Amino acid sequence: MISISLCVIVKNEEEVLAGCLDSVKDIADEIVIVDTGSLDQTKEIASRYTDKIYDFEWIDHFAAARNFAFSKAEMEYILWLDADDIFLEEDRRKLIELKASLSKDVDAVSMYYHVGFDARGEVNFKYRRNRLVKRDIGFRWIGAVHEYLEVYGNIMETDIAVTHRKSDKKHSPSSDRNLNIYEKMAENSETMTPRDLFYFANELKDHGQYQRAITYYHHFLSTKQCWIEDEIRTCQYLSDCYKAVGHEEAALTSLLKAFLIDCPRPEFCCRLGDYFTEKQQYPQGAFWYELALSAKSNDTSFTQVEFSTWYPHLQLCVCHWQLGDREKAKYHNDKAASYNPSHPSVLYNQGVLGG
């Protein structure tokens, strides 16, 4: 059986930290908490679980804080979480089994990250992250913001999931934190990696600065050093930005560029379906929604489940209703209901079409 150090960096996490640590306290052999300046009860809560609590002066650099936490670990493998992450009971069981059976030839273990949920609590957005790594290899975190753990060697993929549970805080200064870090880098003419350019553009988009976001997305693409998943997401986000500033043709062109990078993915097929449906071009819209249902998501990609399940069926209901085919419309609404029975549009359609 392997031994595990849990590493968590924290700041003002009193609302969520206990839930995180409770979900893994009997699995980790040691818990390392690195505090970057909490002003609430975070450190007092952490002290109920471990005496390995360290202060780290915040220097606007997440990788520096995570690498410091890793330096304090002493077990064979390091497991990392954020304070608002937990293992649900089924995933706890799987992690316990993994701990008992993992070969020490494995250098890193990949797990799902469940970060988005629908109104019923079902996962609708997930992707993979390397969560458990062999300590003595010395894997390092890279990046001031949206940092990543650079791993290599024998990497094992599992179906264990870490579930992200956001705090109920009404507002957090972290909502502007990442953008401010990138703005400071830009003001100081610091060199930005392609990854920095991509995430800076994301922050600008999320803050409604669409024209600047477009500029930085194009800077990112021009580096020709893009991870395929980020390049594909850039096509989607550029489309959103162009649409927001009223450049409809550029928005469509950005979506279509994704098909030059990889096979059609459900979310892009649905977006093209939406484009034609909004123009009342229902046969073309139906084509793309049907393709979304047959397109395959890459297991290593960012997966938005609704675009291959209830959403294209719901939109196909609309298309076939407008095309005068009530039977097909009902069929697709029934299929949408099998995935998302409480969605308001599904319920409305049932009233029109019959349950």
TrEMBL record:
Keyword vocabulary terms for this entry: Transferase
UniProt keyword Transferase present: yes
Gene Ontology molecular functions: transferase activity
Keyword Cell membrane on entry: no
Domain Glycosyltransferase 2-like: 5-122
Protein name (record): Glycosyl transferase
Gene3D superfamilies, alphabetized: Spore Coat Polysaccharide Biosynthesis Protein SpsA, Chain A, Tetratricopeptide repeat domain
Source domain of life: Bacteria
Any Pfam family hit: Glycos_transf_2
InterPro entries assigned: Glyco_trans_2-like, Nucleotide-diphossugar_trans, TPR-like_helical_dom_sf
